[in-house]
Amino acid sequence: MRIGRKSPPPPPVAALRPPGFEAVLARLEAHGRPYDAGFLRRVYEYTAEKHKDQFRRSGEPYLSHPLAVAYLLADQRSDQIAVAVGLLHDVIEDTLVTADGLASEFGPEIAALVEGVTKIGKHAYVRRDEAQAETFRKMILASAKDLRIILVKLADRLHNMMTLGAMSPEARRRISQETVEIYAPIAHRLGMARVRGDLEDLAFYYLYPLQYAALREKIDERMKVGQEAMREVRERLVSALSEAGIEAEISFRIKRFYSIFQKLRRQGIDISELYDYLAFRIITTSLRDSYAALGVVHQLWRPIPGRFKDY
Predict the structure, then answer these.
(1) I need a labelling partner for 109 at 20 to 30 A (CA). Which of 16, 92, 127, 310 fits?
(2) Which residues are annotated as catalytic?
(3) What is the DSSP letter of 255?
(4) Is residue 64 classed exposed, middle or buried when 0-12, 13-18 and 19+ CB atoms within 10 A define those classes?
(5) How far apart are CA 111 and CA 101, in angstroms?
């Protein structure tokens, strides 16, 4: 009997289905962000015209990329100027459009922001050590006179990481290394936890494919067994906190793959020795209730000696 190899695990972050322009507007609407639909449509049509004969390495129309960047920015509650720059961010670099031409079309603010994103892309990062990486991160942050330049660049990098499979193996490694050393720390510095986690997990997927596959398999196995247990834990928490008169919001999540990988490597342990790959979060309305909730938790489950941390 012939036994085939296991299929590779899926990426940790699913690629966006190519969004249409209306989906970008819908995201702005969903988050209550004010926007001028006519203005954004004009930006979109301009972008579509400039990129009309261009394609990505995957074979998709190039327009799918700026649309995805604009969608990510809208989903992050960015303003309409940032969304417009997300649509336009490659027209100076990849078409015959100039900054002056962009300024005459959409004004100097948008032209300056697009030019700022373009300049960041021209900085060449050569991996040496952490000190050099920190210098490079500072240079990027200092060169961006407007925070929206960084937000657009992070959205650009995130979508590129989502679609990195079309690149050569060498390019995937190089871009992933730069992502985890430069762009993920910048996202962390800006308090963008979800973006940072997505960037790190995608970089982990390409830099350490075997380790990712092994970790993913073990986490998935644990989750199959633990789903019912997690529901029971949450129900007990809800009931106990309610009885104690504590108003709280309870959620749980699996820690990010790259974060787990880093912890296992740093401590030299196996995942079977890891206690906190799953995290419950209890958010209360006051500091007093926070400690009262902690007391409720300790009544339900005895803390493991040496594992309790009060931040």
Answers:
(1) 16
(2) 93-94
(3) P
(4) buried
(5) 8
Percent of the chain clearing pLDDT 90 (strictly above): 68
Average pLDDT of span 4-15: 75
- Do 21-207 and 210-300 share a fold? no
Instruction: Encode pLDDT of 117-133 as tens digits.
Output: 999 988 777 766 777 78
Supply 241's token pair: 């906190």
Q: What CA–CA distance (Å, rounded) separates 67 from 188? A: 24
At 117, list the tokens: 């994103």
The closest alpha carbon to 62, from 79, 84, 87, 82, belongs to 87
The domain locations on the chain are: 21-207, 210-300
Tally DSSP H helices, then E strands, for the chain.
15, 2
Are 91 and 119 in contact, with CB atoms under 8 Å apart? no
Which among 181, 91, 163 is positioned nearest to 127, based on CA atoms? 181
Question: What separation, in Å, do the N-terminal and C-terminal C-alpha atoms of the chain show?
Answer: 56
Other CB atoms within a 10 A radius of the CB of residue 189 amount to 12
Indicate the CATH number of 210-300 among 3.40.630.30, 3.30.420.40, 3.40.50.2300, 3.30.460.10.
3.30.460.10
Environment class of residue 129 by beta-carbon count within 10 Å: exposed (0-12), middle (13-18) or buried (19+)? exposed
Give the Cβ contact number of residue 96 at 10 Å. Answer: 8
Tokens of 152: 């657009």
pLDDT for the residue numbered 8: 76
The residue whose two tokens read 């940072």 is: 196
Distance CA 133, CA 271 (A): 30
